[in-house]
Amino acid sequence: MQELWEGLVQAVQLIVRLDPEVVEISLRSLYVSAAAILIAALFCVPAGGMIHFHEFRGKKVLINVIQTFYSIPTVVVGLFVFLFISRAGPLGGLELLFTPGAIIIGQVILILPILTGMIISALNGVDKSIKDTALSMGASGSQAIWTIIGEARFAVVGALILGFGRAISEVGAAMMLGGNIRGYTRVLTTAISLETQRGDLVLSLALGIILISIAMVVSVIVNVLLQRY
Known about the structure:
There is one protein chain. The protein is mostly helical and 229 residues long. It has a single domain, classed as MetI-like fold (Orthogonal Bundle), CATH 1.10.3720.10. Helix content is 78%, strand content 0%. It has eleven helices and no strands. The chain has helices at 2-16, 20-53, 59-68, 74-85, 100-124, 129-136, 141-151, 153-169, 172-178, 188-198, 201-228. Helix 6 (129-136) packs across helix 7 (141-151) and helix 8 (153-169) packs antiparallel against helix 11.
């Protein structure tokens, strides 16, 4: 117990004095996950809107498929992306494997179904009379759609933040696609895994504290936004 307490104290000291390695890994994790959520949002927001606002055959089946992929294992995502961007894959010429870009691709694919499904759910929660009211006041179809999206803005933002939390906390795809290269592709989760195996529990604890802190901040923001919604 004494060793654990001493390790926690040393870990906090690393954070307080802004240890260069801790700062570097933390900033890279934030950058990679933020880039992934922004790229995913560019696709998921319009895709979720199109699915919600249009009726077509197989719509319920499509939504069920999207929801099924909520819990897709990260290592499976990593495997499929690895096959595509490895030298023998169709995108091998881009030389993306073991780069931060590869981790971003993996995280984007991982959070796509989560964001799309949650945005559809957010739009479903808006009173249908709002669209009718907007149309009766002379708004065009697209203006009415943006009105509904505006009404669901807190839930949509909450979905984006939740997707960010999912991205920054995953380890399987980041390990397989980034290679955990020190100073280049090492992120919080992969660094914690490696340093724990190497026996450097102080660094692992410091990174773990940062990751938990980020998760707590994400959770608080999501809860506040959903309460406002």
